[in-house]
Automatic annotation (TrEMBL):
This is glutathione transferase. Its EC number is 2.5.1.18. Keywords: Transferase. The lineage of its organism: Bacteria, Pseudomonadati, Pseudomonadota, Gammaproteobacteria, Chromatiales. GO terms for molecular function: glutathione binding; glutathione transferase activity.
Length: 218
């Protein structure tokens, strides 16, 4: 086990950056967050972002002179390399379930909630900076299907996999926190009581109080 601080390359408003932060907070890992590493700025749109990630994505974890990419891999590494509460079950089947949900969240759920829906409100690209409602409407059916899937999964336990907070919850939390705080999405949660209660539980965790804060863009 190691105690050396880690650096998370990325902007704090990013959902995936926040997921890595949540893992650090849950395990008591010292960390910093920022778009600079070794004096080099790694910002969206800059060519420098490809020096750490072959596809120019964030977050990137820097630890002991090495760097690691892709949020699920980063979170699993943090859980294995540092002391603190375990974020993955020991039992093989349950651990595989966490891996399964982590993959689905990072791919399909992120696409439906963040890429196809939320980003249209955060960075609208319509005429005069307006939201393109036709894109929002097109994204809504898949978004509702994803939320219903999460609602069904929560019938099995307090968290996504059983009754303990795991990496899967760390990845889900920032997406759902943003979505449930969006006025345009209020009606989506009316018939999803388990999901509403789940978001409430996530927000009450001490880690969330430090990470799920009002975003600053720019």
């Amino acid at each position: 086990m190691t105690n050396q601080a880690v650096h998370i390359v990325g902007m704090q408003f990013s959902t995936f950056v926040r997921s890595v932060q949540l893992c650090c907070e849950e395990k008591g890992i010292p960390y910093t967050v920022g778009a600079e590493v070794i004096g080099q700025s790694i910002k969206p749109g800059s060519s420098e972002r490809f020096t750490l990630h072959p596809f120019g994505k964030i977050p990137v974890l820097v630890h002991e002179g090495r760097h690691l990419i892709e949020t699920p891999s980063i979170c699993r590494y943090l859980d294995a390399a540092f002391a603190g509460p375990a974020l993955q079950p020991e039992e093989p089947w349950l651990r595989a379930q966490v891996d399964q949900w982590t993959a689905m969240l990072a791919l399909y759920v992120d696409q439906a909630i963040v890429r196809s829906y939320l980003l249209e409100f955060v960075f609208p690209k319509g005429r005069d900076g307006t939201v393109r409602q036709e894109l929002v409407d097109a994204a809504t059916p898949e978004l509702m299907r994803i939320l219903a899937l999460l609602e069904d999964q929560l019938a099995e336990g307090t968290y996504l996999v059983g009754d303990s907070f795991t990496i899967a919850d760390a990845i889900a939390a920032p997406m759902l926190d943003y979505l449930s705080g969006l006025p345009a999405a209020e009606n989506f949660f009316v018939e999803l009581p388990r999901l509403v209660a789940y978001v409430g539980r996530l927000r009450k965790r001490p880690s969330a109080a430090k990470v799920l804060v009002a975003p600053t863009f720019g």
